[in-house]
Amino acid sequence: TVFNDRHFSCENCDGCVSGGFDAATSQIVLCQNNIRQQSHMNRVVTHELIHAFDHCRAHVDWFKNVKHLACSEIRAANLSGDCTLMNEIARFKFGLKGHHQTCVRDRAIRSILAVRKVSKETAEKAVDEVFDACFNDLEPFGRIPHNKADAKRAYRDFQNRDRYNANL
């Protein structure tokens, strides 16, 4: 069960970090001084909730296994809306073929470097080693929610998952 006052914290943060997941307290931190739009906050919350989901589901070793961190960052970048076309245009990054995967890879590396003192080469290697498996892991959504309609369909599928499985 998630309790807003227990599992979410709004704080002032250093640099340009927008949020984080604290595995020790199972708390999502939102950087109130760096989030200025509702759409940005929605992405940050979704991104951090994916880390929380991974923490509960996969028993991620956040501090000792950079591949675990890389996988969760890949999933969060892929599923949170970080790499939508509009966000990439706002960042002045353009591309068509394979651009979503490139964005996910770049954002995952950037996130690893922001939270761990590892070399760029170490972060890139970890992302490359787990990329395919983690990029294709779409839980808990079952799809990449590219827009609100996709997100609503994913939620409806989630609500009906037991009904479908009962017929198997």
From TrEMBL:
A biological-process GO annotation: mitochondrial proton-transporting ATP synthase complex assembly
Enzymatic class: hydrolase
Cellular-component GO terms for this entry: mitochondrion
Gene Ontology terms for molecular function: metal ion binding; metalloendopeptidase activity
Keywords: Hydrolase, Metal-binding, Metalloprotease, Protease
The enzyme's E.C. designation: 3.4.24.-
Domain of life: Eukaryota
Family according to the record: Belongs to the peptidase M76 family.
Protein name: Mitochondrial inner membrane protease ATP23
Organism of derivation: Mohoua ochrocephala
Gene name tied to this protein: Atp23
